[in-house]
Amino acid sequence: MKISAPREVHPGETRAPLTPACAAKLAKLGAQVEVEAGIGTHAGFSDDDYAKSGATISHDRRNLLSSADMVLRLRKPPIEEVAWLKPGAIHASLLDPFNEKELIQEFANRNVSAISMEFIPRTTRAQKMDVLSSQANLGGYEAVILAARHSNKIFPMMTTAAGTILPAKVFIIGVGVAGLQAIATAKRLGAKVTAYDTRPVVEEQVKSLGAQFLKMDIGETGQTKDGYAKALTAEQIQKQREAMKKTCADSDVVITAAQVFGRKAPILVTDEMLNAMKPGSVVVDLAVETGGNVEGVEYDKVTDRNGVKIIGIANMPGRAPLHASQVYSENLFNLVGEFWDKNEKTFVLKLDDEIINGCLITHGGKIVNPKLNGKPN
What we know:
Elements: E1 2-5, H1 20-29, E2 32-36, H2 47-52, E3 56-58, H3 61-66, E4 70-72, H4 79-82, E5 90-93, H5 101-109, E6 113-116, H6 131-150, E7 158-160, E8 163-165, E9 169-173, H7 177-188, E10 192-196, H8 203-208, E11 212-213, H9 234-249, E12 253-256, H10 271-276, E13 282-285, E14 302-305, E15 308-311, H11 321-338, E16 340-341, E17 346-347, H12 354-359, E18 360-363, E19 366-367
Parallel strand pairs: 1-2, 1-4, 2-3, 4-5, 5-6, 9-10, 9-12, 10-11, 12-13, 13-15
Antiparallel strand pairs: 6-18, 7-8, 14-15, 16-17, 18-19
Helix pairs in contact: 1-11, 6-7, 6-11
């Protein structure tokens, strides 16, 4: 079986979908591995590194894709490249299937079995394949580092001959994987951390990291079976904003990481909240790629609003491309390895398996995932 990995072409993307280490592991399974020249340049991997791992280096992107039995990539492909794929091939990457209906239909028209890495089930068995968690973990870390760099304060408390410097106050909204890592990183830097999430079940996790959990009564909230926060009503959102305004005003750094899977990110930090914050404060919006949690945030830009810096930098995991590539590549390899037939030396689409059933989007010329025929959970 030939497994191909093209170079990422999305503007500003620094991550590689496949590392030399994982290419070597695929080759050891018996796969014929081919990668596009320059695939790992921005992540610190040379073409020689891939060649030494047993991969073939291709300088012909179209041939690389059209000859592959399975394609591994990071971002969704340009729609025109779907036509290059071999009918019956398997394609695995992030696909944003709720918002890319035309792309998904093109996969079906081409008779390509498309796997959406966002749809990997959040189960114990599939945890090693969970790219959303592995990338969000790094995004949470980078958000804090970026906030510290832009803040006019240091994070830790310091007792000096010139007096005591009080610790910075950091408020984190949204306690998923990214939020938890942001809490842990801010605490390690010495900040005083407060966090909030609509899911009361995360309070224990917040406190276990040494942060304070902001409690507010906005009525019944909860999470989906996959662990994502459920969407709030308009009335609940208004109550939430009122309760958070005071904490934002008292904070030196606010980091938002609240997303509802398959939907536009909710606006949590309004202009009114921003106006209440002190000049020199910093707000980092980790949900900018799905619309943003901060009112008026500008995609992939740092802006200044009355002395408050609003950071809407996209692709936070890509700011640590080597490690982001390592964990993403391991996620992909774990998916391949889980369904690899050692005798036939091929990837087997087990349609009755809960993992494949959950993440397979198109197969046999049709859109087969039930999540795309209704509303996301």
